[in-house]
Amino acid sequence: MAVEYYTVTENEVGQRIDNFLLRHLKQLPKSALYRIVRKGEVRVDKKRVKPEKKLELGEIIRIPPIKLETEVNPPDKPALASESLLVTLEAAVLHEDEQLIFINKPSGLPVHGGSGYKLGLIEAFRQLRENLPYVELAHRIDRDTSGVVILAKSRQALTELHGLFRDGKIDKRYKALVAGRWKHGRQHVTMDLSQEEGTRQKVQRVEEGEGKVSETIFSSLKNLHGASLLEAQILTGRMHQIRVQLQNLGHPILGDDRYGDFALNRKFREMGLKRLFLHSASVDFTLRATGRRYVIEAPLPDDLKDVLINIKINAVERTE
């Protein structure tokens, strides 16, 4: 590999040089990447830089020759999305303009690869839209959760979205089917949450001050036979926030194989519920840079609609 030179475009303005290199030298271990920066092999406008250096428009980045041990340890080839997945994602685009893309993510698809998954939404979408020079995830939702996911088409849009999420300026709402009859009306729930010791995959409620604060406003949409359909407006974005809060309130989400009631899950499986009944239903926000407001809704998927119909049918049959 020869020396490469890259001119900073608008999409990279404000990005740290280490993050830029991580994106452009994906096969290089982080330790090696920081070493070449520290040794001055990476230059910006012919000057040595620190990893936290923020890029400016028109700067020229020198990337030194990088020798990768691909002959000895060939890297895994990126997984290719199936034609059916690409067709599904194209049909799942809820709205797209020059800055943002909104996808109605199907359940079962992680938002990105890793942790045992070679392919996620973002990798598949980049294959679908190979002509896009830039597309990044603005946030995450769980693999088994369906619904609205926002992608940014520029670095500036991504940075602004991160700021809006951080400042609580994005109204994000979910629909969840929970066990039992919800009698709380509209309830503002605050809980401290923390990852369980020894695992990064499960979250638990902890005493106040011992974890990260999570806030959600729950409202009842419909009471059904043995279950309730709720709207959850999240005010914070903690891992598994809605699922853990509802578990602790005694109304676990149906179909939840981690925090749910397994006996009830089996019962509702007979009514067609084969996955977590949690759906990212809508987002509502205004971009500060343009003043443009986005109100995007993702309809409930057919498999979840069918579950609601089957619950009603089952309730009628019980009364006959």
From TrEMBL:
Record PROSITE patterns: PSI_RLU (PS01129), S4 (PS50889)
Matching CDD domains: PseudoU_synth_RluA_like, S4
The protein's name in its UniProt record: Pseudouridine synthase
Pfam families the UniProt entry points to: PseudoU_synth_2, S4
SUPFAM superfamilies the record matches: Alpha-L RNA-binding motif, Pseudouridine synthase
UniProt-annotated catalytic positions: D142
Entry keywords, A to Z: Isomerase, RNA-binding, rRNA processing
